[in-house]
Amino acid sequence: MGSIRKKTMSKDRILGRHLLLLVFIKIVILYGLWYVFIKPNKVKVDVSDVQRLYQGGASAPPENQFNQNQRSQP
Predict the structure, then answer these.
(1) In angstroms, rounded to a whole number, what is the distance separating the alpha carbons of residues 3 and 20?
(2) Does residue 47 carry a pLDDT above 80?
(3) Other residues' Cβ atoms within 10 Å of the Cβ of residue 52
(4) How buried is residue 69: exposed, middle or buried, by Cβ count under 10 Å (0-12/13-18/19+)?
(5) Which of 10, 48, 60, 61 is close enough to 65 for a disulfide, judged by CB 3.0 to 4.6 Å?
(6) Is the pLDDT of residue 63 over 60?
(7) Cα-atom radius of gyration of the chain, to the nearest Å?
(8) Is the Cα dihedral 44, 49, 54, 57 positive or negative?
(9) SS3 annotation, 39-71
């Protein structure tokens, strides 16, 4: 009976190591994706924009952004 328990324990340890390795690999892949796609995109934050956000006021869209309320007429 001791040998059965020993085999089960070793299989559990192997499974635990495999799961730990998979989690580590996933973390490395997620960090790599963040580093490639997210980190290079810097967003400039203006103090007045943050104040409007916390005070509940609507922020004006940038001038070069298309305003959906103004439809172009053919």
Answers:
(1) 26
(2) yes
(3) 14
(4) exposed
(5) 61
(6) no
(7) 27
(8) negative
(9) CCCCCCCCHHHHHHHHHCCCCCCCCCCCCCCCC
Return the exposure string of 26-46: e unless at least 16 CB atoms fall within 10 Å of the residue's CB, then b.
eeeeeeeeeeeeeeeeeeeee
Average pLDDT over residues 10-25: 95
CB atoms near residue 12 (< 10 Å): 10
In which element (H, E) is residue 29 found? Answer: helix 2-33
First to last CA, the chain: 85
**pTM for the structure as a whole:** 0.51
Q: Which two tokens stand for residue 48?
A: 């007045």
| Pair 45, 51: CB distance under 8 Å | no
